[in-house]
Amino acid sequence: MSRIRQLASLLQKATPLAILLCACAQFSTFQLTAGELRIERLFGAEIKTGPYKHPARIEELRNGDLFVVYYGGEGEYATDTGVFASRLKSGSHKWSHPVRIAHDPFRSLGNGVPWQAPDGLLWLFYVVRYGETWSTSRVQAKVSRDNANTWSDAFPLVSTQGMMVCNKPIVLLNGDYLLPLYFEGGNNPDFTGADSSGLFLRYDSKKKTWQETGHIRSATGNIQPVAVETSENNLIAFCRRGGNYEPTTNGWLVRAESKDGGWTWSEGVNSSFKNPNAAVDFIKLASGNLLLLFNDSMNDRTPLTVTLSNDQGRSWAWKRNLTEGPYDYGYPMALQTRDGKIHMIFTSHERTIVNHAVLDELWIKEGGTVQSWLPKK
Q1: Is position 230 within any domain?
Q2: pLDDT, tens digit, for every residue of 64-86?
Q3: Going by C-beta distance under 8 Å and a sequence separation of 6 or more, which residues neighbour residue 38?
Q4: CA distance 305 to 283
Q5: What is the CATH number of the domain that holds 170?
Q6: Which domain holds residue 106?
Q7: What is the pLDDT of residues 279-320, one digit of tens each?
Q8: 374 within 8 A of 25, measured Cβ to Cβ
């Protein structure tokens, strides 16, 4: 029996306690007090969409609902997989049961990313794998005009082999959108090739067309970029490093800059942040501070760490671990909702559990109360 199946079996036996912990968190999460962190367990083995639930992404809809999607099925390379979605209605304390909103009867799906544009159109970007490895993937999309109640048919967004999506777009100061993509080379499940590179699709909000930008190139390759516009046309991007998963003393997030609105990028160089070949997120908060969410390790997806900059990324004055311990905390994503709260979504327990954290800037700066179902080390 695989490690994931063994873990799923153990979690299944613990379902009543897990559901109790989850329910308690759901009833209290949105009464968050200043300087508090709360982490709730959303979905695990009790949700019959397959043991694999990874990665997860979150969006706030225009009507105030929170909308979460994850890639689910029997495993990362299974074929009968799909993108599943759950909703927390505004004012409610209970997430809906996940339902499949994207599926291919012949191919495996991958990362799903929901994003509602300023015009109200809700996009779902996701990966379709055509061959044995992710290097054969393409990017497809669906759209919803009624806040995810119904969806359009799927349509190809990028047909170039090896293209994938992982993170949501940002809106540039001129109104255009910038969707992070990446090209993954190597054709191997155990490493990404040195030709792997981050890039973006830029959406012209007037012409309503997507156009590919230049790539971020780096010595050992990089994938899964996330970008922030610090001032008009000036952007910073962090990328997951390329390479393998062997122990290293030289594993760092890759950093690049653009001076022309994301059309072209500087060479990617090692930043000061560790990276265990794992996804990160990077956003600008309403305060103007920049937030980076990452695994502060070169070899393990623990701890899960958040850091803040108040000078456009030149320095990082505050850093705090959201969680640390015996589990893996992967593919984190951060979202600041209209009420100012910071929501984070990530997976754990070898990609079988989806978790949801809520906090504020005060907790990052000063620490405070922590209520979490995740045990410490």
Answers
A1: no
A2: 999 999 999 999 998 889 999 99
A3: 25, 28, 29, 32, 357, 358, 359, 370, 371, 372
A4: 14
A5: 2.120.10.10
A6: 3-186+198-221+323-372
A7: 999 999 999 999 999 999 999 999 999 999 999 999 999 999
A8: no
